[in-house]
Amino acid sequence: MSELLLDVGQMRDAEARIERTFAPGVLPTDQTICRVVAPVALSVVVRKDRMQFRLVGRVKTVIELSCSRCLDGFATPVDEAFDVLYLPHAPAGSGEERMVEDDDLSTAFYSDNVIDLGQLMQEQCYLAVPMKPLCRDDCRGLCPVCGTNFNTGSCECRPAWVDSRLAVLEQLRKDK
Fold first, then answer.
1. Which of 24, 54, 110, 115 has CA 20 to 30 A from 46's CA?
2. What is the DSSP string of 80-142?
């Protein structure tokens, strides 16, 4: 876990370059969202300005997702660029609410002179997950009755969709 932590207290130069590769199991991710299945390559330039640190770089790996139509797992590459400003974590203030500015979306906080690179890489993987992951654009999904994957087979089910609001009209049609 310590390999995922960047000790900025030891940084003496105004700029440092970091190139690291991590094993897939080292990066903590929520398995229900995605699973890292390839080594994670991190390339970052750290720029120091007093107690502020700007990390600009790129994360590359491969993640496995579940298709939202057929539920099969599939791999997708991640190649995400980032530019994050790290500020020292300040204790909770007055509790006043304030508006979130655009710059706040690329700002993170560190404490004890340590920046968690694992969290940074995890966020980049999560940002690479599409709203509706599909194994392929023409995925046919599952049968709502028996669960057959239409990409690999077919079934004899005839799903009948009935709108309960139209049941009265259906009854009138049957009476005639």
1. 24
2. EEEEEEEEEPPPP-S----PPPGGGGGEEEEBTTEEEHHHHHHHHHHHHS-SS--SSTT---B
